[in-house]
Amino acid sequence: MPIKTITRDANGLIEGVSYEYSPSGGIEWKAMVPKEFLYVNPDMKRRDKIEKEYGKSYDQIDPIADKVKDADLVILLNGLRHLLHLRGHNYVRLTPTQSTIEYASVNCEISFTPSFESEGRTIIHQDNACAHQGNTNNFAQNYLVEIASNRAFCRCVRAFLKINIVSREELGASIEQEAPKSVMAPAKQIKMLEDIMLAKGVIWKTISDKLKSENRFSEAYKSIHDLPKDLVFEFIERIKKIP
Fold first, then answer.
1. Are the C-beta atoms of residues 127 and 79 closer than 8 Å to each other?
2. What is the pLDDT of residue 151?
3. Cα-based angle 229, 150, 122 (whole degrees, multiple of 5)
4. pLDDT of 183 above 70
C-alpha cells in the first residue's frame, strides 16, 4: 500500500481536506467531527426531556440529521483526536500533578502548529482534569491517572477549538454506567477491525483477555460485534502498531 503523505498549505490546513467555515471566517471545528464520534447524552435524568424536544425515542435521534444541541451531545475521545490531527500539533504533553490511590490530577499541554486562525503563530494551550472515587466507577477507579489524562486531553482540545460538546471521558460516574445503543460501532468500523485482526493474526480471545487484564471487560462482550465504538477504534489503532 503506498504511503499517503500529509501536506499542509500556507494556511496550515491539510491539502485535500474539505474544511467547514463559520460566518466569521474561522473553521467550524464542531462541524468537522465525523458522525460516528457523536452520540446523544444517555443521562436517564435528561432522556425524557430530550425525547420530547426532538419528538423521537432516544434510539431514533440522529445527532446530525436532527440537529441535536451541543448540550445534548457527547463526543468520543477519538473524535477529538481526529480534530487535533486536522488542526495540527507539535506535541501533546501530559503531566500528572497529583496521584494517590483515591485521587489523580493531570495537566495537558498541547503545542498547536501555526495556522491562519493563530495568525501564523505556534500556540501552546493547557488544561487540567482530575479523577477520583466520586466521579469514576467500575474499572476506571483502578486507572485514575489514565482517566484524568484522557479528561485533560479532551478538555484541552475542546477549549482551544471552542467545542462545547462534553466528551465521554468527562462524564460523571452516574452517566458513565450507561452504554447506549448509539455508541455501538457501525458495520464499516467492525469490518476495519476484522481486517486488521486478520492481517496481524489477532483473534477475539486476545482482545477479550486484554480487556480482562485491564478490568475493562463486560460479560456483554461476546465478540467484537458487541464492543462499543470507542473500544473498536482503540483496538484498531492498538493492533495497527503490532509489528
1. no
2. 94
3. 110
4. no
Cα angle for residues 160, 164, 170 (degrees, 5° grid): 90
| pTM, entire model | 0.70
Write the Ramachandran bin of 196: left for phi over 0, alpha for psi from -120 to 50, otherwise beta.
alpha
Closest CA to 117 of 240, 32, 237, 213: 32
Query: Which letter, b or e, does each residue of 83-96 get, where b requires 16 or more Cβ atoms within 10 Å of its Cβ?
Result: bbebbbbeebebee
pLDDT at 87 over 60: yes
DSSP H helical segments within 90-200, as ranges? 144-161, 173-176, 187-200
**Length reported for the chain:** 243
> How many C-beta atoms surround the C-beta of residue 112 within 10 A?
23
Mean local confidence (pLDDT), 193-215: 89
Identify the pLDDT of residue 94: 96
